[in-house]
Structure prediction request, 321 residues.
Amino acid sequence: MGTICLADACVQCGLPGQPCCANDSCSAGCCDPGNGQRSCIPAGSQCSTGDLCQQNGMCAGCGGPWQPCCDKATCGPAMICTNNVCEPCGGVGQRCCANSTCGAGECCASDVCEGDGQPCGPSQVCSKGACVHCDAPGEPCCSGSLCNAGCCDANNTCVAANKECGNGQICAGDCGICGTKDMPCCQGTSCIAPSLKCMETVNGPLCTICGWTGRPCCAGQVCADGGCCVGDANNNYCTAAGAACPGNLGQCANGSCGQCGALGEPCCAFNNAGVCTAAYAYCPNADVKGTCRPCGGQGQPCCPDGNSCQPPWHCNGGKCN
Prediction:
């Protein structure tokens, strides 16, 4: 037994002789639609439609799943009357119920209920009971964890290429570990180990081995075994100690090419610009008449090759602290 609001008053409902409760329910017997009054009748009595009220709460032969609709229009809960047949509705893959409604977390798309994460239109996905646009960065992933030119992270959200997916991962076709050898650079700019350098490639920024002869210089223009770093801030490579530096700069020895490039020495002239070839040294204003000065240490200017500093310092406002 319950109550229902009728004519601005709460009245008892659900028992035989009382009005039907919400959703045409009765705690005993059947909800009889007779003359639009909808009152509860006891099991075994005659419904106004001529059928008998059964023990299952339905007038005989109508109102249940795949039974004829009662009064040619009425069905039990979670059913819809279609061509005078009560068809289950509201579940995934079923027709939408009245007013385009579906079960909790489901979406009505083209009169069919779709589950959460299922497509419900072109570039749309069902998300928490609503059809929303998907596949762009910041939007939900489309069905099948698909994103347009990006990755689907663990939160089912699209992430742009080369952006972090969380948990130390980066989007490179799929979310994976960043900053290690031959893997994408973290945030597109950095690598985990000092022996790796973030380099732009046809596959995007990748962490490559640095510091050895013929390889890119590591951060701070560092080369192994007294080698020399020759080139500009964005394109420099290591020359082995004892070998001739490119550009006819002289022989490499302890980071110095001939008589230039080391701390306190004149800047080397390379491609019409002043450069330094030793680790953690820079040529102010790239002046070919300048002198190589220290960079990367605490309180010193950040080195120009990617604003690098010596560990454990970090570049902040052009200074290493």
